[in-house]
Amino acid sequence: MIRPLASPLRLGVIGVSEGNGHPYSWSAICNGYDAQAMADCPYPVIPRYLARQEFPAAMLGTARVTHVWTQDPAVSAHISRAALIPNIVTGHPEAMIGAVDALLLARDDAENHLRLAAPFLDAGLPVYVDKPLGVSRAAALELFARARYPSQLFSCSALRYAAEMWLRPSQRARVGPVRLVDGVVPKDWTKYAIHVIEPVIAQFCNGDAIDKSRRLHAGGMTQLLVSWASGLQTRFTSIGTTRAPIEMLVHGTEGSVRLRFRHAFPAFKAALNAFVSGVIEDKRAIPQQETLTVVDLIELGCG
User: What predicted TM-score, i.e. pTM, was given to this entire model?
Assistant: First the structure.
């Protein structure tokens, strides 16, 4: 479905949800930022990694965030100042329909995704839904059913696009055929397990089917063990309040490799680029079945 688009693409952004700074970071990747205003962002890691980039060269050249809406006008105003967004939408977020080419739904409270995305999907606008798309297959399918064309709905963990979470050819040769992948994330299962589930599915389980699974939950930690039809074994663990990096340990017949997430900016930029490129080229960036498998695992871990 090719539609007339602005160049660069005009994006609206919707935020915020608790603990999620993506309205700031995603918008800054597209627009650049005001260092003084961004210093007051509630998420100190964001101005730190933005400061390591060279702007404007680091910006995504194909899109600009032109409109912002949040449920709090003061927060909207601060995001606008920090990420150089010219238009603040008040009242209902769908007021930006007609003024934007696509939407960034930068909230990770999955229970609100359908309510917020539906007016934009119904209007034919492409929508990037922050992870997780849903915490059940039924919820994800409801969103996909609302889409009018294959490339309209996009959702992922940006770690899918983090180069350091993928085996390099030399590493793959060193570990041999992969038998077990063990992924660990901090914080809670519902919002954070996807950060290891998604790169594992994209890299090792493409087209594979879940054979059986077992969930363990104790002491604020959740673990999901999955056997795949191919014989691959995976283990995904969210460790709650215990501090730990996001990482995967890949075990093969010849050796093991540890992959640790380190660089947020290029991963977020690559995910945004995948969405925007899909909009411009009218191509689905991620197979729907792959996204549904990710959601299936999140649902299995929720118990």
Answer: 0.95
